[in-house]
Amino acid sequence: MSPAATAPTQAELLDFVRRTAADNELIASLPLDPEGRTWVRLEGPGGSEAWLIGWPPGTGTGWHDHADSVGAFVTAQGELKEYSLAVRLPADGWKTLELADDVDRERTLPAGRGRAFGRHHVHEVLNGSTEEHAISVHAYYPPLPLIRRFSRTGRLLRLEHVERPDDWQ
C-alpha cells in the first residue's frame, strides 16, 4: 500500500484530536507551567504528529502556518481563540505581503470544540483568559516539516523566520 493511501485525512485527524481531548486522564496528566506553554508529543494516526499543549493565561502562538501539513486541533479544557486568514499564501519568494480587507476570520473554541485545516493555513491561537489555563490537542500530517512565523501590522504580513523540527522537539 502506498503512503498516500494510508495518510490520514483532515476528518480523521479531527476525529483523533476530539477523542484524545475527551480522555480526562490524559488531559489531567499534562504538567502546567504558570508562565510558559507546555507540550507532550503523542502518537497520532497514520504516522501523523500529535501534541497535547498547555496554555497559561494570556499566552498564544503568534501568526504562523504549518507549511505543507494539514491538521486539526480541539480545545480540551478552558477556551482558545483562533484568528486566521482566509487566503492562501505563496510558499516561497516573499518577505512582506499586503492583505485584502476581508481575509480575517475569528473563532472562539471552548472545551470540546475545534477545527481541521488545510495546507498553508495561517493563524494564531490564544488563551485570552486572565486566570485559567487552557489545554488542547493538535495533529498534523505529514509531520511538520517546518513552521513559518509571521508578524502582522494592520494589513501587512511579514515573514519573520522559519522553525524546523529541532527547534520544538
Q: What key attributes describe this structure?
A:
169 residues; mainly beta; Jelly Rolls; five-stranded antiparallel beta sheet; four-stranded antiparallel beta sheet; 3 helices; globular
Secondary structure elements and their pairing?
Elements: H1 3-6, H2 10-21, H3 24-29, E1 38-43, E2 49-55, E3 63-65, E4 70-77, E5 79-85, E6 96-98, E7 104-110, E8 114-117, E9 123-126, E10 134-141, E11 147-153, E12 156-163
Antiparallel strand pairs: 1-2, 2-10, 3-11, 4-8, 4-10, 5-7, 5-9, 6-12, 11-12
Would you kindly provide a written description of the structure presented here, covering whatever features stand out?
With 169 residues, the chain is mainly β. The protein has one domain (3-167): Sandwich (Jelly Rolls). The chain contains three helices and twelve strands. It has helices at 3-6, 10-21, 24-29, and strands spanning 38-43, 49-55, 63-65, 70-77, 79-85, 96-98, 104-110, 114-117, 123-126, 134-141, 147-153, 156-163. A five-stranded antiparallel β-sheet has the order 1-2-10-4-8, with helices on one face. The longest helix is centred in the N-terminal third of the chain and has 12 residues, at 10-21. It is globular and about 45 Å long. It starts with a helix and ends in a 6-residue tail after the last strand. The model has no long low-confidence stretch (mean pLDDT 93).
